[in-house]
Predict the structure.
Amino acid sequence: MRKIIVKGKKRLEGEVVISGSKNSALPILAATILIPGESVIFGVPNLMDVTTIIRVLRTLGLRAEYYDPGTVKVWNNHHIRHVAPYELVTKMRASFFVIGPILARSGLAKVPLPGGCAIGSRPVNLHIKGLELMGAKVQMEHGFVIVKAEDGLKGARIYLDHPSVGATETIMMAATLASGETLIENAAQEPEISDLAEFLVKAGARIEGAGTEKIKIEGVKLLADYKRFYKEWAGLEMTDEMAKMDLVMHPVFTYEEQIKLFDTAKGKSQVEQWQGAILDFFTEQGRFKPEEKEKVSKTPYITDKFLKLVKQPIPGA
């Protein structure tokens, strides 16, 4: 019998750097499929499974690589391929959850069954059930799962028979771009669920309840690299005040609406005129009456009232 002999009475001292969680890194990297532009992920462990998911992203048309030790950069600037590679997905079961982001982005996904398993023998059936409830059509063909949502995914109430981590992640990612509200009940509550939700929210997703048994996702039209938009369209560096507004703006504006705002604000001061651009845009949308615009424009840049007004949905959006 093997033994481990520990001789005590010596104080343990020093520092050690703890790597990030693989269970969080894998779905977060898969979620970059949803986000046009550049994503930078820190604290990524240097493991074979991470290398595999990076290779999967590359075959789907993304550029992904280790930029520094523990840091992965992903550039998503091209059309997403809808077929995931058989030799990689069958090697690592966790890579199956790319099915949700691919479907949400392109309306079609063809992903091999993970590890060669059949639906029902392992909990990938919960992934499929969730996507079906959101309106996807599913068929099996030569070891691949083919899912289609030609008219886009729709929000749905989804109860998981088992609180599967992978199914919760798949459905949550797919629901970020679905129309309407999705409610996941009996959801997994592991820390990686909260980590994934935090990443998606930073990209503009509307998610509440991650880490609890009920997760609510309100679909948006686009997730995006908003810092790039600030720089390219407005010519602005993101200040602390901008960052505060950025958290509010994410769920409010579509890509086209942001471009219009940035163009309006171009060449103007970073704080006062930014609010003016937003107020002008809201007035055009019928969100403010002229007298309301005049009143709000005289308030400090960040106020509770202004933030409350900004959070209201745009009519018809």
